[in-house]
Every structure is written in structure tokens, then in C-alpha cells.
Design a protein that fits this description.
Elements: H1 10-21, E1 26-27, H2 29-32, E2 49-50, H3 55-67, E3 72-75, E4 93-96, E5 103-107, E6 112-116, H4 121-129, E7 133-134, H5 147-153, H6 160-163, H7 166-169, E8 170-176, E9 182-185, H8 199-202, E10 211-218, E11 220-221, E12 225-233, H9 239-249, E13 254-260, H10 262-269, E14 286-294, H11 297-313, E15 319-322, H12 326-336, H13 339-346, E16 350-355, H14 361-375, E17 380-385, E18 391-397, H15 406-419, H16 438-441, H17 444-457
Helix pairs in contact: 1-3, 9-11, 14-15
Bound molecules: flavin-adenine dinucleotide (FAD).
The site of flavin-adenine dinucleotide has 37 residues, from strand 3, helix 5 and strand 10.
């Protein structure tokens, strides 16, 4: 790597950036202060905010900040849930991709879209839908999450069981390295075994190895219809059986399988300000929101109903409520995705995003709840998750003690994850919030290689320092 040696005063770096890229490329610290850098409400301090209009400007800025001995945090839609944008030293500058929002090309034959990294997920979904195409990753933060952030966190979301995570959607990437080198990895083909697949290194690297500036993403045919239902379970031990039966019966069209523990539905449907209706009666061990998406609305709906009827008849599920309209389907999803209500009702809280094998989820949650309540009798635990892809989200509150005890709570939550060979981060990444727990999921030899890679690609810790490792 070529690194400039003589330190440049920071003011000179800013001046050079203004001269080369124009006034719109710089937001003064006073104006940047107060910008949101997390869904939880963390705000940017008074630091310089860079706003490049293209890849060449990103590369120029990176070189200038490198020469000034500074640090840069790549900033997308600030919807990340792992503290990946929080400052560590207080000296970081931020680089926002908000002026790089071009959808450069949609190719319906190759079924690819070429975008700049600042494109917002919802904008991308809407643009490809106009051409009868689908971008398969979908998640509750679709209105703010950007392609760069989705790639950097290897986001998952609601259709992972069918289409995989972000990693499976990326055919090509353009990345600016810490020395300003622009890596052209913009492949447009599904098959490419020409040497190491370097783009994979940057997917999920959370802004620590390079800045994602453009991407080639895979598209699918849009669905003609969606069938959604809420199901209630007698026992969580039935979970693997329900999933297997749905997958087999729906002929590959099952695309969502979301599990909610009873506390989750109570939070959404009871108490002051609750805006959602309970789709099924109380008393179940757990509730599932399942969705099948296919190409023939009539036959798909008939098959969906037949599979559910058989599950009811066989006693595998206790009850089912099928969405009778698009409005009802949206209401089901609104209930599942009302994270704002969850935060409001449960704060102060500490949240976890873990993976465990499906067959062990029920025992994992029971053991974790028992261990939490043994140590903190007032502990409350709420669980929900995408589940079919092994993912559970846990929310714990101890009341006023929550923040002070968050590390100890993490120890309890992660003990069961480690015992089951799961992961401490299923889809949100490590960022700053989970950094100290990384060794639970990664052996020391793997951690050492990660550190070596970081040192080799970014010897002066320019890019998002202090995150991940
Ligand atoms: C209501 C809600 C629901 C959510 N649901 C899900 C879900 O179901 N599944 C899921 O996986 N996530 C979910 N998330 C988390 C979040 O949406 C994802 O992490 C998203 O991918 C972050 O994108 P962003 O543009 O907001 O990134 P930011 O929050 O801005 O940044 C996240 C990280 O990526 C880095 N980064 C951003 N842009 C770039 C770039 N161009 N190059 C290099 N690094 C970059 C940042 O430095 C930071 O470390 C949810 C969040 C909310 C608020």
C-alpha cells in the first residue's frame, strides 16, 4: 500500500477538499452537529462531514484525510443497530454517501441493477418494481438504509430463508481503499471463479476495510401475489415441524417465517397508544407470521390454504388467521415491524441479535429467561426473530439498572449461544456495541487473521477505527 508520509495539517486537507470538490462537498462541523447516527438517537458531534459526489471524490478525500493522519467513518442511512457509526476517539470525520444516489442501470435481461452506494433501499425496490423486477432484500428500515450500509453490514431481513443475505445479492462492488486506490470489482455475471472473490472481504466489513461506492446487484422476477397468515403454536417444540411442512407444501414459495413470543404481541397490541390488533386469541406458546410469494395468485392462494388446513387438521398448529386483503397483510407486517413501539414500551433496554439452531431455540430462550430471572428477579425478556434463518432478536430490560448491567446481561445471553455454537451477531454486525463479545463467536486464530487483514489494508486505522475488532 502507498501511504503518504508527511502529515498534512487538517485545515489544509479540508481546504484541498473544498478546492477540488466544491463547497457542497463539505458540511462545517457546526452544521453537521446533531445529525442522527443511530436509530436509538445518538447524534453527531461538531465534526467535519464530507459529501463526495462520485468515486473519484471519495478517493481524493480518503487520500487527504490519510495524509492529515485523520480517521473517517463512512455514513449511510444511520439505521444500523450495532453502533457502527459511533465515534471512538472523538476525532473522526464522517463521509456521507448522500450525494451518490444514482441508479445507473437496470438490465431486465441480465436481471441486474447498477447503483451508487447512497441509494436508499426503498428507492431501489420501487425503481426495479416498475420493470417487473424484485430486489430481494427487505427490512423495516427500507426508507433509510442505503446500499452501502446494507453491503457493509451484510444485512439480512425478511426474505433470507429464500434468497439469502446481502452477500447473495451482490455480483459486483466498487470499493475505495484506505490509501485511495479504487478497486473495480464490478462483475455483472453470476458465475465468476477467476481467483479470489475479493468483494466478499468488504461485504460485512462495516466500513473498516474500504468504502463501498458502487454495486452491481442481482434482481429476480417480481411476485404476482403474496399470501400471509398468522399462526399460533401449542408448543415451540413444534417449530421445526411447521417450517419443514410449510417448505415442502408450498413448493419453494415460502419467503418469510417470523416468530414472535407472546410478550411481543402483548407489547404491540395492549396498553396506552397500542395501534395494532391481536390477529389470534391469546394463550399460544408462540405466534408465526408466514408469507408465501409466487407467480400465480389463484393457484398459490389455493395451495397456501390447503397447506394451512392440513397443519390445523394434524394439530401441528393451534390456529390460523389468513390475511384477506392487501390492507390486512400490511397490518400483519406493521405489527411485526413496529420497532418504535417496542423501544418506547421497553426502554431502558439492551438488545441482542443472535443465531442459534432452530431445534434448540425453545430451550435457548427458556434457559436464558431462567438465568436472567435468577440473577435479576425483575428482568423481563422479549423475543422475536426471522427464525427460519436461525436468527432471534432478544430484548432485555432490568428497569433502571439496565445500562449499568448490560455487559453482565450480555454474558448471560451469550452463554447459551456459545453452548449451541450459534453467533453473537446474526445480521446487525459487530460495530462498537458487540466488539468486546466478538471472541465468543470467533476463535483467536480467526481474530488474529482479521486483525492482520485490517492492519495490511489500513495500517494507519483511517477507516472506522475501533469498530469490529
Ligand atoms: C426498524 C429497523 C429494522 C431493521 N431490520 C433489519 C433487518 O431485518 N435485518 C438487518 O440485517 N438489519 C436490520 N436493521 C439494521 C439496518 O437497517 C441495517 O444494518 C442497514 O444495513 C444499515 O444501512 P445504513 O445505510 O443505514 O448504514 P449505516 O447505519 O449508516 O451504517 C452502518 C455501518 O455500515 C458502514 N457503512 C455505511 N455505508 C458504507 C459504505 N458506503 N461503505 C462502507 N461502509 C459503510 C458504517 O460505517 C457503519 O459501520 C434494521 C434497522 C431498523 C432501524
Amino acid at each position: 500500500m502507498t501511504i503518504l508520509q508527511s502529515p498534512l495539517p487538517k485545515a489544509d486537507a479540508l481546504q484541498a477538499i473544498r478546492q477540488r470538490c466544491g463547497a457542497a462537498a463539505l458540511v462545517a462541523p457546526a452544521d453537521a452537529a446533531g445529525r442522527r447516527i443511530s436509530p436509538g438517537g445518538d447524534l453527531l458531534a461538531a465534526v467535519p462531514l464530507l459529501r463526495p459526489a462520485g468515486t473519484d471524490e471519495v478517493a481524493f478525500m480518503v487520500r487527504q484525510v490519510q495524509a492529515a493522519g485523520g480517521a473517517l467513518v463512512p455514513l449511510g442511512g444511520a439505521s444500523g443497530l450495532a453502533g457502527g457509526l459511533k465515534p471512538v476517539t472523538g476525532q473522526e470525520w464522517y463521509l456521507s454517501l448522500e450525494r451518490m444516489r444514482a441508479i445507473e442501470e437496470i438490465d431486465p435481461v441480465s436481471r441486474i441493477v447498477v447503483v451508487q452506494a447512497g441509494v436508499v433501499l426503498q428507492t431501489l425496490q420501487d425503481a426495479v418494481a416498475e420493470q417487473g423486477l424484485l430486489f430481494a432484500v427487505d427490512l423495516g428500515a427500507r426508507g433509510s438504509a442505503t446500499v452501502g450500509g446494507l453491503v457493509a453490514t451484510n444485512a439480512g431481513g425478511e426474505r433470507v430463508l429464500r434468497f439469502g443475505m446481502m452477500r447473495e445479492q451482490v455480483l459486483g462492488l466498487e470499493v475505495v481503499l484506505a490509501d485511495g486506490t479504487v478497486l473495480d470489482l464490478m462483475d455483472r455475471v453470476l458465475k465468476n471463479n477467476a481467483g479470489f472473490d475479493l468483494k466478499q472481504l468488504f461485504i460485512g466489513s462495516e466500513g473498516t476495510l474500504g468504502i463501498v461506492t458502487r454495486a452491481v446487484l442481482r434482481l429476480r422476477s417480481a411476485f404476482a401475489g403474496h399470501d400471509a397468515a398468522f399462526l399460533s403454536l401449542r408448543s415451540l417444540a413444534d417449530l421445526p415441524r411447521v417450517l419443514t411442512r410449510l417448505e415442502a407444501g408450498l413448493g419453494g414459495t415460502l419467503s418469510a417465517f417470523e416468530l414472535m413470543w407472546p410478550e411481543f404481541l402483548q407489547t404491540m397490541t395492549e396498553g396506552a397508544g397500542a395501534q395494532h390488533r391481536m390477529p389470534l386469541g391469546p394463550g399460544a406458546a408462540g405466534y408465526l407470521l408466514v408469507e408465501a410469494e409466487g407467480g400465480n395468485p389463484e393457484t398459490d392462494a389455493t395451495r397456501f390454504m390447503a397447506v394451512l388446513e392440513q397443519l390445523l387438521e394434524d394439530g401441528v398448529i393451534a390456529d390460523a388467521a389468513v390475511a384477506q386483503s392487501e390492507a390486512e397483510r400490511r397490518a400483519f407486517w406493521a405489527l411485526r415491524n413496529d420497532i418504535a413501539r417496542l423501544i418506547l414500551t421497553w426502554s431502558p433496554l439492551v438488545a441482542f441479535d443472535v443465531s442459534v439452531p432452530i431445534a434448540q431455540m425453545s430451550s435457548y430462550v427458556d434457559d436464558t429467561r431462567a438465568a436472567l430471572c435468577l440473577r435479576w428477579p425483575l428482568a423481563r425478556l422479549l423475543v422475536f426473530g426471522h427464525v427460519a434463518d436461525n436468527n432471534l432478536h432478544l430484548v432485555v430490560t432490568l428497569g433502571a439498572d439496565t445500562a449499568a448491567q448490560s455487559t453482565a446481561v450480555g454474558d448471560v445471553v451469550y452463554a447459551g449461544v456459545r453452548a449451541r455454537r450459534g453467533s453473537i451477531s446474526a445480521e446487525h454486525g459487530i460495530g462498537l456495541d458487540k466488539r468486546d463479545a466478538l471472541a465468543i463467536s470467533r476463535p483467536q486464530e480467526v481474530m488474529a487473521l482479521m486483525r492482520q487483514l485490517k492492519r495490511w489494508l489500513d495500517p494507519r486505522a483511517l477507516l472506522n477505527p475501533g469498530k469490529v475488532i
